Amino acid sequence: MSSAGGVWKALERGKEAGCQVIQLFTKNNNRWGGADINPEDAEKFKQAASETGVIPSASHSAYLINLASANPLTLDKSIPAFIDEIDRADILGIPNLIFHPGSHGGAGEEIGIQKIVASLDIITAERPKAKVKIVLETTAGQGNAIGYKFEHLAEIMAKCESPDRFGVCLDTCHIFAAGYDISNKEGYKKTFDSFKKIIGFNLLRAIHLNDSKKECGSNVDRHEHIGKGKIGIEGFRLLVNDGRLKDIPMILETPKGPDMKEDKINLALLRKLAGV
Question: HSE (CB half, 13 Å, CA atoms) of 155?
Fold first, then answer.
């Protein structure tokens, strides 16, 4: 949900769309910095959460942040920008901060993972008492992105000095594009058996529900409306009826206009599939 006009507006928009939970950017997602969140704004946000009943389950970091960057100038900007994202989430009482692990820029996955671990160790040391969970999102593997294998995320968390500070967000479009075929019962079972073994459901903090415009294994990140893409209805039927996931916040990141008509359609379909 957009936070244009004030972060609390995201909750009001979520209520209008019929959401139980939302994800938001706490600042412009394509800028390094943003205006500080003052105590009055934070109070409005918490009051809106109470009045609407909508849970602000996650914020998402700005897209410019790259904790795996081979460019030291980018890293010098990314680390303080990420610390600012943590501060913003904590001020608002948001429990999860979701981010893309990063792109190694051609330096190789091993070096990229090392840089992510080093960056996260600096960040957690700078904010040892932060309450927000730092949540690594699965990626499609487009370009030089890290995180398209469950093993990448598991390795990053295991190598960090404070592994208890982290969790995982699973994006359905991303994992499908990365080669995890969740469009049918057999592929779904294989994928989540693998997830359980490599990462574990105890570390799953959020799920992004997005169909995929591109084929399984394409490594192309293109979100589509639920049931309109290559994953299809069956994959989402399996997911919303999986008892292991019943308490995990599920977030739509599908294309939409200002009236949120598309969100309402996607939510209605998902709830129908879940029998609610």
Answer: 16
pLDDT tens, residue by residue, 9-18: 999 999 999 9
pLDDT tens, 98-136? 999 999 999 999 999 999 999 999 999 999 999 999 999
In this prediction the pTM is: 0.96
Helical residues (DSSP H) of 108-149, grouped into ranges: 109-126
The predicted pLDDT at position 96 comes to 98
Distances (CA, A) of 248 to 17, 57, 106: 19, 10, 34
Q: What is the CA radius of gyration of the chain?
A: 18
User: What residues form DSSP beta bridges with 228?
Assistant: none
Neighbours of 247 (CB within 10 A): 7
Q: What residue type is 44 in one-letter code?
A: K
Query: Checking DSSP bridges between strand 223-224 and strand 211-212, what pairing results, if any?
Result: antiparallel
Q: What is the distance between the alpha carbons of residues 170 and 86, in angstroms, rounded to a whole number?
A: 20
What is the Cα–Cα distance from 237 to 208, expressed in whole angstroms? 15
Could you tell me the residue ranges of all domains in the chain?
9-274
Contact 226, 209 (CB under 8 A): yes
Give CA–CA dist 273/276, Å, rounded: 8
Chain mean position to CA 116:
17
Burial class of residue 263 in the structure, from the number of CB atoms within 10 Å of its CB (0-12 exposed, 13-18 middle, 19+ buried): buried
Whether domain 9-274 has CATH 3.30.450.30: the reply is no
